[in-house]
Amino acid sequence: MVNKQVFFIKLIHSTIFFIMVICLFYILYATIIRKYDWILLTAIVMILIDGASIALNRWRCPLTTLAEKRGAADGAITHMFKFFIVLYVIELVWLGISYFG
Question: What is the pTM of this model?
Fold first, then answer.
């Protein structure tokens, strides 16, 4: 039963991660072509919510902690979070310059 729980948690974790990567790429795409729409706003808000959940959990994804409590040796699916923070900041600066500049 524990393995099924860990698998399900990691599946959800991977799905959320994949959605966040899509959001990051959409922000980059929208910035490059100067397309300012509700999808861009949604992508920005989703990244902010994800970042806030990690920040409020002492810079650790809540699903990682949950997977480890359920018996996973390592609940993390990726260690690329710092890279995505830098990418997100660069995208927002670029977006701000292209929108207001």
Answer: 0.80
